[in-house]
Amino acid sequence: MSSEPWTIESIRDALGNPALAQRFLGEINRAPAHQLLAVFARWERIAKDTLAAVEHGRELAAAEARGEEPGGVWIDGTDRVLADAARIRARGAA
Question: How many CB atoms are located within 10 Å of the residue 24 CB?
Fold first, then answer.
């Protein structure tokens, strides 16, 4: 987002996902007047976080395309996922 102030339209657009944008519009339209600013601020933060995540994803994809290792700290969750799966299977889940 540029330095322009956030609007209902810019938040809706930044959310990207149509279902999420519809949820935002529903909440902002149903908010009582005394809660309107709080609802707007919460969705503004969500929109900013969404844009930051998209930008980070693009940076990671560009680094991978260049054959570089992605930056940052990465936690390997393989062992945890395998342990969870084993525990679920032990309980008889399919």
Answer: 23
